[in-house]
Design goal:
Number of helices: 7
CATH topology of the domain at 2-70 and 136-219: Rossmann fold
CATH class of the domain at 2-70 and 136-219: Alpha Beta
Bound molecules: adenosine-5'-triphosphate
Protein name: ATP-binding protein
Helix content: 25-40%
InterPro entries: ABC_transporter-like_ATP-bd, Metal_Ion_Import_ABC, P-loop_NTPase
Number of strands: 8
Strand order of the largest sheet: 4-5-6-3-7-8
Shape: globular
Family: Belongs to the ABC transporter superfamily.
Largest sheet: 6 strands, mixed
Pfam families: ABC_tran
Order of helices and strands: EEEHEHHHEHEEEHH
CATH architecture of the domain at 2-70 and 136-219: 3-Layer(aba) Sandwich
Keywords: ATP-binding, Nucleotide-binding, Transport
Length: 220
């Protein structure tokens, strides 16, 4: 997925100007950047929900897990899963998606959305989004508030969307430990510009340090 020369401003605040980025369908794409660097705004633009007349990549079907899903507080977990399977299909469930459902979601099926913890909500909506059949998948901070072991599940499920279903998947993260061992395509944003795009090895080379966290800090 390639975006070229995209511009977007919120009323009086320009966010992107002549912005270009490419996300690979060969690897899981991890979008990194400081708070306010424009990650969610970029996702909104790709999904076509930012109110801009010009979408950066028109005619693409996009599945989008927003940062803090707050939908239907009195629906149960089972009912939300039913909604996702009606729009998508249970046949699209990946191996790790099945584990998330069986080991975790199945235990809270009768719980109402409004009673879920932040981490439980992330698991539910990340799982549900992966059941949709789209070209591009955007997951905004799917591991925020999620325990380390469940975050591993979520990222593995996203990797399966790439490996088993050949999808373009972009995920924003803040906890770098979660991707320390992953072979991801990293993109860093700095004040509305791409400051790095490539592999972890490329990032370490560019930053001239063997320390991943230090390299990311330099490049966001
Ligand atoms: N609806 C809006 N109207 C005006 N300004 C906005 C709006 N949404 C976001 N912004 C501003 O745009 C900038 C980019 O915000 P965005 O949410 O894209 O950042 P982010 O990289 O996703 O941050 P975070 O990591 O904190 O989620 C910020 O300065 C933010 O205050």
């Amino acid at each position: 997925m390639k975006i070229t020369n995209y511009a977007f401003a919120y009323k009086d605040q320009p966010i992107f100007d002549d912005f270009s980025v490419e996300f690979s369908s060969d690897y899981l794409n991890v979008l990194l950047g400081e708070n306010g660097s424009g990650k969610s705004t970029l996702f909104d633009a790709i999904a076509g929900v930012n109110g801009a007349r010009n979408q950066p990549i028109p005619n693409q079907s996009v599945a989008y897990k927003v940062q803090q899903p707050v939908l239907f507080p009195n629906l149960t977990v089972q009912e939300i899963i039913n909604l996702f399977t009606q729009i998508g299909s249970v046949k699209l469930e990946t191996e790790t998606g099945r584990l998330i459902r069986e080991d975790f979601l199945s235990k809270i099926l009768s719980r109402k959305m409004g009673q879920l913890s932040g981490g439980e909500r992330q698991l539910l909506f990340s799982y549900g989004t992966h059941l949709l059949d789209r070209d591009i998948y955007l997951f905004d901070e799917p591991t925020a508030g999620v325990s380390f072991s469940n975050a591993e599940y979520i990222l593995k499920m996203m990797q399966e969307l790439v490996d088993a279903r050949g999808k373009t998947v972009v995920v924003t993260l803040h906890d770098l430990k979660e991707i320390e061992t992953m072979n991801a395509h990293l993109v860093t944003l700095q004040a509305g510009k791409v400051s790095f795009s490539g592999t972890k090895a490329g990032m370490l080379d560019l930053a001239g340090t063997p320390d991943f966290e230090a390299a990311v800090k330099q490049l966001v």
